[in-house]
């Protein structure tokens, strides 16, 4: 059976640990990307709507931040998804006659195909250079003289704990240089009930998204997870401002993998930790930027202060 060795290694380590854990980075197979598109349209999932609205309403202001000198630039969208939200920003840059190459990068072929279709339809004259890949390992660009503006939207950074978030931002800092910028889309700390509902929707789409990870492991690693014997569980801790998702084993059970040649046992009620979603205060964002070699220039928020677009400048 053909399989991704990185996934095999990750699952072997993750399911052998005392606290079983799998990374949310593996959620996005084609079905996972489709389910995430449905999550983004859910009434409870405010994140996409608020960020999208900010990107639409404040596109000109952002374009001014991004391009104060109207120099040619590469816009590098890390974990771009289907590009629905970035379209208005790209349109704004395009309308300002900025010489801009849009470089979306994603691990999901499905997401990049949807993005390419969208941009060909709505912004056919924009230079588009999609790249299928992992932003922890690759950079979608050979060093050029053009300015680089990197974007990490959709609260992607919040999926990492603080040391890993700082490590990622430092690695981005190492790729950028004087005059370059980083734009982060970050979910802000708010009423815990509002946050929790976003990860525990009534229709059960988030549950299906979480459980789809097990379906992926069945297909790609020859595992025999019975999805009916695991349940989605979400929590939010207002002290740490972190939402966490788990898959809870309904019974005592054993699950095997043909590829890994291993069997993993689960107690009844045992939880696999699958996702963290950090929420931020403005102070946390400022500290994160400083710890990674950036300076926070501007924090663009909606009226309720639910979500922020953080404009970070590279500091030597
Ligand atoms: C939460 S979605 C956000 C999508 C988009 N940026 C938005 O704001 O709508 C996360 C996206 O990042 C991609 N992704 C997650 N981890 C990645 C990684 N390490 N490298 C590249 N893409 C990644 C996923 O495939 C998915 O399309």
UniProtKB/TrEMBL annotation:
Annotated Histidine-specific methyltransferase SAM-dependent domain residues: 8-312
GO biological process: one example: methylation
Alphabetical list of Pfam families matching this protein: Methyltransf_33
Domain of life from the UniProt record: Bacteria
Matches recorded under SUPFAM superfamilies: S-adenosyl-L-methionine-dependent methyltransferases (SSF53335)
GO MF annotations, alphabetized: L-histidine N(alpha)-methyltransferase activity
Keywords per UniProt: Methyltransferase, Plasmid, Transferase
EC number: 2.1.1.44
Classification via InterPro entries: EgtD, EgtD_Methyltrsf_superfamily, MeTrfase_dom, MeTrfase_EgtD-like, SAM-dependent_MTases_sf
Entry protein name: L-histidine N(Alpha)-methyltransferase
Origin species: Aquincola tertiaricarbonis
Higher taxonomy: Bacteria, Pseudomonadati, Pseudomonadota, Betaproteobacteria, Burkholderiales
């Amino acid at each position: 059976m053909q399989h991704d060795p990185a996934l095999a290694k990750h699952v072997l380590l993750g399911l052998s640990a005392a606290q079983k854990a799998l990374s949310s980075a593996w959620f996005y197979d084609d079905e996972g990307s489709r389910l995430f598109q449905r999550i983004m349209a859910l009434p409870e999932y405010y994140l996409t709507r608020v960020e999208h609205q900010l990107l639409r309403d404040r596109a000109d202001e952002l374009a001014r931040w991004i391009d104060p000198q109207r120099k040619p630039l590469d816009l590098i969208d890390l974990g771009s998804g289907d590009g629905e939200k970035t379209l208005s920003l790209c349109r704004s840059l395009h309308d300002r006659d900025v010489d801009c190459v849009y470089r979306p990068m994603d691990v999901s072929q499905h997401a990049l195909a949807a993005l390419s279709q969208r941009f060909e339809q709505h912004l056919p004259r924009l230079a588009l250079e999609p790249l299928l890949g992992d932003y922890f390992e690759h950079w979608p660009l050979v060093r050029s003289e053009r300015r680089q503006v990197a974007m990490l939207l959709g609260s992607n950074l919040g999926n990492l704990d603080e040391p890993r978030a700082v490590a990622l931002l430092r690695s981005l800092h190492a790729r950028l240089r004087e005059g370059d910028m980083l734009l982060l889309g970050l979910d802000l700390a708010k009423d815990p009930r509002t946050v929790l509902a976003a990860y525990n929707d009534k229709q059960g789409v988030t549950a299906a998204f979480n459980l789809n990870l097990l379906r992926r492991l069945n297909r790609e690693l020859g595992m025999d997870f019975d999805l009916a014997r695991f349940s989605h569980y979400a929590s939010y801790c207002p002290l740490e401002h972190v939402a966490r998702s788990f898959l809870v084993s309904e019974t005592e059970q054993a699950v095997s993998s043909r590829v890994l040649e291993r069997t993993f046992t689960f107690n009844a009620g045992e939880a696999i930790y699958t996702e963290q979603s950090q929420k931020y205060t403005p102070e946390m964002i400022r500290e994160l930027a400083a710890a990674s070699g950036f300076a926070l220039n501007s924090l663009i928020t909606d009226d309720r202060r639910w979500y922020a677009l953080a404009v970070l400048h590279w500091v030597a």
